Each structure stands twice: as C-alpha cells, then as structure tokens.
C-alpha cells in the first residue's frame, strides 16, 4: 500500500502543538514532507525557540504517523526559525534586532525587572539569540541582576559593544555611570539617553531584544513607547487591586500607541511557607486572569512569591541560570515560549520586500 502526502497532511492536521495549541498544518509549521516508498520524512519548522519541547514534538509526530497503515521508517526533524514581525508605524527599526519585546508595569515593586531578565534568559535557553536593554534610566538594575561589572567597549568612539552575561547581550545606563550616581535628569534627557542606548549599541543578530521599561504611565513612558520599535508588550502585575489598577493603565497606554499586548504575567501569585509548607495567596487571587478576560489578552503565567527569585537576582544569577532545572526556571521558560508564540502569530515585517524609491534629478 502506497503512502500519500495527503495521508501525512491529514495526520499532521489532527496533531496539536503543545505550545501553540494549534495543529501543525494550520500553524504552517510543516516545512517538508518526503515520501520514498513507504518511508516518510517530515520537517517541522517552529516559529518560536523550543529547546525544551523539540524532543517532545518529535516523539508526538512520530507516534501520530505510526498510525498510518503500512507506513515504514519515519524521520521527523524539528527546528526553529525566528523572523522579524511588524512594529508600530513611523518608528525606525533597529539594526541587528528582529523583534523587540517591552516588559512594563503600571507601578514599581511588582517584580518587573526580575521578570524581564528571566524572560530574556529563558528565551536564550530555548535557543534564541537574545539581548536585554535596561530602559530604566533613573533606577537601572540589570547590571546587578546579571552580575555585570565594568564598562562597554567602543571600537569607533561613536558606538558601543553590548556586554555579555549568561549568553545574552546587555546594555544599561548603569554600565556607563558610577553605581551611586543619581540620574537627576528631566524627561527629554531621559528619552534621548534611552534612544542612544538603543541605537548606538552594536546589537548582533538578535532574534529578540527584551526592553525593561521603567514603571509608570507618564509622559516619559509614553514617549519611550512611541520611540522604540516594539513588536509587542508584556505587562507584569501582582494580584492585588492597586497593582491591577495601575497595570490596566499600562495596558491602555500601549493600546493607544498601537503596540500589541502579548500577555500578562502575574508575580507573587502565591506564597509557600518554608517552615510548614502552607500555601496561601497573600496578595489575593485571580486578579491577573480576570484582567486578561476583561481585555481579551493572554494570561502568560503566574510566579510565586519565592525568596529564591530575589536571592538569585541579587547575586547576579537569575533563577533561569541559577537553577535551570528548577520549578521557577520551568515557569519562566514556559512563559518565554508563550511570548515567542504570540510574537510569531503577530503580523510579519515585510518592509524589506518593498523596493526603495529614490528621486534623482536629471
């Protein structure tokens, strides 16, 4: 009995990607189907980095294809391809960067910077080329969280080389000034400084640049959102009403400037006592999920109020690298894959496909 491509397509159409929750045909993840007699080779190309689940996907598809009557040897290859996606109109793209993910919060103290750095490290752990830009000019924290010391190099006196930490590229105003120097600057100076950090850094072939934005929704934050070519934004909140109220303002800010919301991360969701093991929602429960329902955005995941997250970032080794096989790192990696899927589902950037029109005088 001869195996047909239609049979293979039919099986793949009934097999659901555990990360996207779509079948592989609908998700356009099937890059190749080759049939030699009864032997079948299938190529799967995921639009998100997937080191944690590649083997699972390979086994899942192999098992599904084994149900085809008369099928012989099965070979399934799984890889990832990250492409650029669209940003808000009228904003200049950044050389060497495919996609920019803004991590924001309506208020401070909700664990936004810890989420940003662990998200960046998790995307890297999943196989992507990643950078992080510390856009909090007044209170830069990424150098300490990443354990970076020293200053960035400049080979031409005009641009800077990103510093490297745990496999990702990083830039922060904190790398250019003394740690105890206060940034007593007005809004326009802060905006200019951020643009220089973004545009004057020689980012090298990044699939994702994670931007750790300062908290709040004032004039500075709005200006930053209008100047940075952002693919999508992640909102970080905690479950209590006050944090959610400010998080909603942050979400509306991005909507106003045309930046898609990739989803919401809820920090400090529950706390487990290290002495007795009792778990309780100190800051309330269900707030992040309720906000997602109200605005029709994705709930990316919930993180516990855990002393380890603080200890890891304080020592310059965030949870994803400090305990890569731990429960917390697993949550961050799941969130990272969901963020990457949301980016992959957004509109593609076709700017390079259009010819440039140059007016010349005869």
UniProtKB/TrEMBL annotation:
Domain MIP18 family-like: from-to ranges: 5-78
InterPro entries from the UniProt entry: FSCA_dom_sf, MIP18-like, Mrp-like_CS, Mrp/NBP35_ATP-bd, NUBPL-like, P-loop_NTPase, YlxH/NBP35
Entry keywords, A to Z: ATP-binding, Hydrolase, Iron, Iron-sulfur, Metal-binding, Nucleotide-binding
GO biological process, one term: iron-sulfur cluster assembly
Molecular function per GO: 4 iron, 4 sulfur cluster binding; ATP binding; ATP hydrolysis activity; ATP-dependent FeS chaperone activity; metal ion binding
GO cellular component, one term: cytosol
Residues noted as binding ATP in the record, renumbered to the chain: 106-113
Origin superkingdom: Bacteria
NCBIfam families membership: PRK11670.1
Family from the record: Belongs to the Mrp/NBP35 ATP-binding proteins family. In the N-terminal section; belongs to the MIP18 family.
Assembly and binders: Homodimer.
PANTHER family with a match to the protein in the record: IRON-SULFUR PROTEIN NUBPL (PTHR42961)
Function (record text): Binds and transfers iron-sulfur (Fe-S) clusters to target apoproteins. Can hydrolyze ATP.
Protein name as catalogued: Iron-sulfur cluster carrier protein
Organism name: Nitrosomonas oligotropha
């Amino acid at each position: 009995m001869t195996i047909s491509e239609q049979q293979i397509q039919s099986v793949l159409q009934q097999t659901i990607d555990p990360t996207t929750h779509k079948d592989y045909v609908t998700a356009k993840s099937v890059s190749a189907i080759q049939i030699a007699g009864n032997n079948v080779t299938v190529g799967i190309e995921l639009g998100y980095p997937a080191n944690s689940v590649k083997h699972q996907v390979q086994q899942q598809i192999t098992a599904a294809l084994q149900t085809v009557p008369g099928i012989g040897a099965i070979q399934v290859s799984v890889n990832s391809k990250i492409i650029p996606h669209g940003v808000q109109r009228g904003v200049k793209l950044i050389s060497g960067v495919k996609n920019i993910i803004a991590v924001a919060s309506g208020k401070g103290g909700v664990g936004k910077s810890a989420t940003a750095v662990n998200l960046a490290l998790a995307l890297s752990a999943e196989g992507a080329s990643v950078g992080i830009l510390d856009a909090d000019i007044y209170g830069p924290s990424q150098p300490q969280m990443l354990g970076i010391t020293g200053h960035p190099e400049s080979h031409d006196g005009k641009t800077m080389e990103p510093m490297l930490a745990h496999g990702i590229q990083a830039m922060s105003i904190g790398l250019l000034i003394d740690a105890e120097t206060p940034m007593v600057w007005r809004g326009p100076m802060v905006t200019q400084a951020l643009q220089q950090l973004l545009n004057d850094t020689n980012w090298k072939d990044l699939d994702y640049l994670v931007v750790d934005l300062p908290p709040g929704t004032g004039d500075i934050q709005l200006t930053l959102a209008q100047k940075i070519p952002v693919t999508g934004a992640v909102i970080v909140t905690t479950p209590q009403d006050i944090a959610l109220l400010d998080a909603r303002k942050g979400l509306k800010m991005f909507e106003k400037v045309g930046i898609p919301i990739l989803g919401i991360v809820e920090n400090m969701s529950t706390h487990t006592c290290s002495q007795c093991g009792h778990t309780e929602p100190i800051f309330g429960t269900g707030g992040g999920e309720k906000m997602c329902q109200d605005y029709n955005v994705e709930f990316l995941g919930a993180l516990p109020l855990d002393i380890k997250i603080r200890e890891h970032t304080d020592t310059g080794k965030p949870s994803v690298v400090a305990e890569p096989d731990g429960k917390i790192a697993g949550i961050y990696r799941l969130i990272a894959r969901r963020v990457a899927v949301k980016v992959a589902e957004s509109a593609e950037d076709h700017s390079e496909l259009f010819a440039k029109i140059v007016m010349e005088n005869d």
